[in-house]
Amino acid sequence: MRTPEDNQVRFEDLAVKKILEKDKVYRPMLEMVNFNSLMKRYRHIYSEIGAPGYPIESGIKCLLVQIIEDRSDRQMEELARDSVRVRYFCGFSLADETPDHSFFGRFRDRLVSSEHFIYCQVVKYLL
User: Fold this and answer.
1) Residues 99, 92: contact at Cβ < 8 Å?
2) Please, what is the average pLDDT of the chain?
3) Interatomic CA distance for residues 127 and 109, integer angstroms
4) Any residues with CB less than 8 A from the CB of 73 and at least 6 apart, and which?
5) Tens of pLDDT, residues 53-99
6) Half-sphere exposure of 34 toward its Cβ, with a 13 Å CA cutoff?
7) Rounded to two decimals, what is the model's pTM?
8) Measuring CA to CA, which residue among 17, 31, 25 is closest to residue 88?
9) How confident is the model at residue 115 (pLDDT cuts 50, 70, 90)?
10) Residue of 7, 76, 77, 117 with fewest CB within 10 Å of its CB?
11) Would you kindly state where each structural domain of the chain is located, as residue ranges?
């Protein structure tokens, strides 16, 4: 899985970027919004105990895709698993395991108080 600090360029990233050159939604959003700096204030919702989970940036991006694509949690699980452009946008490589449907509800519960603010910040970047 790519992490926000991962600067190593992989062949698959170059191939996927070539495929996504014409994407009008997710590629421009990645170019305009600095998700890493936007998420710094929300890292506290993740525990340092236990196995590492999906990066918070990936969780937020998945929830944004879910809103944009108007998908249920189960549909979002399938979209994240099957769509190259969604995988790339959310920070998953082609070989990475993607979240299952239960992740989205649990992640939303963690963000209840912050979720609206995060989406407003992303929209502000885009406008």
Assistant:
1) no
2) 80
3) 27
4) 66, 101, 102, 104, 105
5) 888 889 889 988 998 899 999 999 999 999 989 998 999 988 899 99
6) 4
7) 0.75
8) 17
9) low
10) 7
11) 11-126
